[in-house]
């Protein structure tokens, strides 16, 4: 059982089922019932029990189908399934957040709220940083170019983080978790390119210890290969630069922005308008506004691009590259996760996968 830095367990049992231990106030925010069982005063830390009645209300609010609701009711018990039975949508309450009001307006974005992006990972690597995204309780996905040359002992992964400097500028209702990395797995088709976006810019970090089960630490859902991204908008978040200048200054508070997804041909046209020669491949997707303003930037690499799919937030991109930040007709370039979601699932489950 994972134990937090404050000494209380990460999960508890109630009526034969497992639930997360979390702040009683935070449990109330997500519609749960605070029960004893976490070894602390129930008015501070409680066993957060969500009944089927509560789950039904959530189902009606999000528009999920009833099959999804049933899998939510059984979510925690299914975590005990063997690794080779892994299915992200059934075994985990993935892609849900206590705060459903994502920032609609990173470059030009807004500060995130606590628990708004519970899958977001902050990766510290020696003297630089990258983003990441929790894809299971044991694995974090990030850009391969972020960690390809890093030593394992240099890579620190923070989950449930909001303010990396703990300045007190924003309210944090629960502590972040610090994880070390056991293993890194680079996608076998990754190719570094010095003047063009890297090919298959994706890697997985296997955590030394499993992520705790808390309302502010929840994996993202993985997409199906057939997901339709045409004409949709996504949300990108990170701790990277907030101004498109030459200064290497990021932000200590997580920020997010909404960005339209672009057809690959549209993306090529945008770059042509700016007289930029870009080689885009099938493993890439672009996102950005015609007038710039909202974008990912330096320090955001490896972070997630997500869309709302059937009531759950789903990973469709990993921040990879871009010619400038927040510039008109110069969109961000992301690794297209639907191309490699099956590989991610195979690594997580321990199965081999032919690419």
UniProtKB/TrEMBL annotation:
InterPro entries: Peptidase_S1_PA, Peptidase_S1_PA_chymotrypsin, Peptidase_S1A, Trypsin_dom, TRYPSIN_SER. Residues 106-349 form the Peptidase S1 domain. It comes from the Eukaryota. Gene3D superfamilies: Trypsin-like serine proteases (2.40.10.10). Signal peptide: none annotated. Keywords: Disulfide bond. Transmembrane segments: none annotated. GO terms for molecular function: serine-type endopeptidase activity. GO terms for biological process: proteolysis. This is Peptidase S1 domain-containing protein. The lineage of its organism: Eukaryota, Metazoa, Ecdysozoa, Arthropoda, Hexapoda.
